[in-house]
Amino acid sequence: MRWKRVRIGSAVSAIGLVCMATATAPAQECEPSGVALLQPDYEVKYSEFGCSVALWGDMCLVGDPGYPNRHDEKTGAVFLFRRSGTRWVLEDKLRASDGEAGDGFGRSIAVSNDLLIVGASKSDGRWADAGAVYVFRWNGTTWDEEAKLYAFDGHEGQYFSSSLAVDDDVIVVGAPYDDQNGQWSGSAYVFRWDGAQWITDAKLLFPDVLEKDFFGRSVAVADNMIMVGASGNSGAVYVFRYDGHYWYLDQRVPAPDGSWGDEFGHAVAMHGNRAVVGMPEGDGHNRYSGVAYTYEWTGSAWVEDTQLEASDGEEGGLFGHAVAISGDTIIVGAPAIYSSEYAAGAVYIYQNTGSQWSEAYRIEAWERYDEDQFGLAVALSGHTILIGANTEYIRPFGPSAWVFRVADSPILVAQHECPGGGPMTIKWSCTTPGGRVALIYGSNHGELTIPDGNACAGTQLQLGGPRVVVISALLWSDSHGNGSMVGTLPEGACGGYLQLIDVTTCEVSNLTPLK
């Protein structure tokens, strides 16, 4: 493919890749980059948008149990945002088919493969505020409501579905206000798909669970193992395993320091042979600043590994209120921490280097206000992080969810208008600090190898013809590996694609459509 010198941006000139420097350096470790702000399509005081979040493929799911129906009754909804290039677009909203005001539909959500489950913890289906779970299945185009689940022995004020987890054909539902072993002792229910319908597989409880233990405050499931957090009193996490016929208690994990009221088990998450447990009222660097604990599965038991604390933790920050884990990465929400504003919140990222977990980054909303509660809910999938920030105030960044990306290759974002063209801002991150980058346009998606005679020769791009344009190879990143440029997008360029190359490492960015 011949490289053309065509000007498509008013602020830059197009030159050939032959101007590039030789690639010698390794790939960069990158700070998380904020790529999207998700907000509801309405303004209403006391919205709860962002109180629950989940990630599924190229889709972000955000719960809002206060979303109003056409009669202004707060029946709740789950917002579905789909990634389109570097943007996240509201695609749909899920509502309960029989939703009523105050049900709390969307208070909790969980997703696995083609299943999405949504909690309505104050649904009055059989008893007032007993709670229910709605099951949706992806049909390849939309989410179809498949079932509504109840506790077979529910009661008033049980709040069944306060927490949720799903793994393939197994659903786990927390009911921390169940009174079976005393007021608010709690319980958890397991449902299994038998090929035709969802059946109750087990009710999880244990004799030592007592009044106000809040067993079921949090739940997690993976393979044939379930974790249930009981955050009340001294706190504990209960591990259940499936032997092919029954769920049995395999291990009780107590709070490491056994302190009363520390909320150990308020949040749990597991992935593979690793788990993380939040204790948001525990004593870290400061009293009640919050901590989280990591655990490793030895093949026979979960063993405590590392105590995580915020490097700048403060009293009442609620570090550990929300947790998520994926591979070698853990994220921990601290929604009440002071972040230039009171209770603005922050999220901490920890990475495992092979021998230990260590704090890698602290991220916060790029615009902060009092009581934003950034980090109230968190989700992690691969390199994508989704963070809920729920506040009762209406303002530019009120109830919201924020999408961040952690990567070891360049990230490219284009802010533009198509069709029609016009002003365009291009931003990049995660490149060599102070290094050169090249920005390339292709009229089609395709496969293109940089030819010999150019630096980064042999590097493959996802661009195709009939037009491939080197917009500029004389762009420079700042000392943090970030950069931006402003130009004008001609109308004829709409429908094409942009890609960026870190000239030092020859790492290639994501493909960014101009649509």
Provide an overview of this structure.
A 4-stranded antiparallel beta sheet has the order 1-28-27-26, with no helix packed on it. Strands 2-3-4-5 form a 4-stranded antiparallel beta sheet, with no helix packed on it. It has a 4-stranded antiparallel beta sheet with strand order 6-7-8-9, with no helix packed on it. The protein has strands spanning 33-38, 52-56, 59-64, 77-84, 87-94, 105-112, 115-120, 132-138, 143-149, 163-167, 170-175, 187-193, 198-204, 215-222, 225-230, 236-242, 247-254, 267-271, 274-279, 291-297, 302-308, 322-326, 329-334, 346-352, 357-363, 374-381, 384-389, 400-405, 411-415, 422-429, 436-449, 460-476, 483-489, 497-502, 512-513. β22 (322-326) and β23 (329-334) form a beta hairpin. The chain has no helices and 35 strands. The protein has 515 residues and is mainly β.
